[in-house]
Amino acid sequence: MGFWDKLFGGNKQPDVEIESINFTENGVEINGTLVDIPTHLSALANLLGKPRAIGFETDNEIREFLEKSEGAGMVTKRVNYAWDELGLLAYTHNGSVVNCFSIQLKPSTSKNAPRGVFGGVATINGEDWFSVMKSGKDGMFLAEYRLGNYKIISEKSDFKKSLADSGREDFNCVDIQLYRE
Fold first, then answer.
1. Which of 18, 64, 74, 119 is most buried, judged by most C-beta within 10 A?
2. pTM above 0.85, yes or no
3. Buried-exposed string 2-14: b where 16+ CB fall within 10 A, e elsewhere
């Protein structure tokens, strides 16, 4: 990006307003537009604008773990893509196929997270995301809810609390990805 682009915001994401995200058995609906997960990054970029790319190295142990579930050779260039102003994040193992889509609920200082938080309404099959997650499986670091071929995960910010004792403020994000046993 050149001096004039920096000065006049050449890398700024376009003004896109996301009013609602609904996680469904068919994928994720963004303002009523259905996106299947996994999907190609270009499908999300066409809908949301150009994201910020966050590449990172994968050590051999993590690569082997991921390839057991994703398939041999599937983990080639791990990149997260953040729509900072929208509080949205997409995960890839190869730089182009989105295998997980996430909304950020709380501000984060991690370079791997969006810089902003999601400001719209988040639902699961049309119901409040938090109410649905409360009926899910409680884990130490996250709550999990099975939805058809997908699993919805919500990461706890206070992992000492049980799901029953947690409030919506105790969660960092909500993710959707294909369910793999």
1. 18
2. no
3. eeeeeeeeeeebe
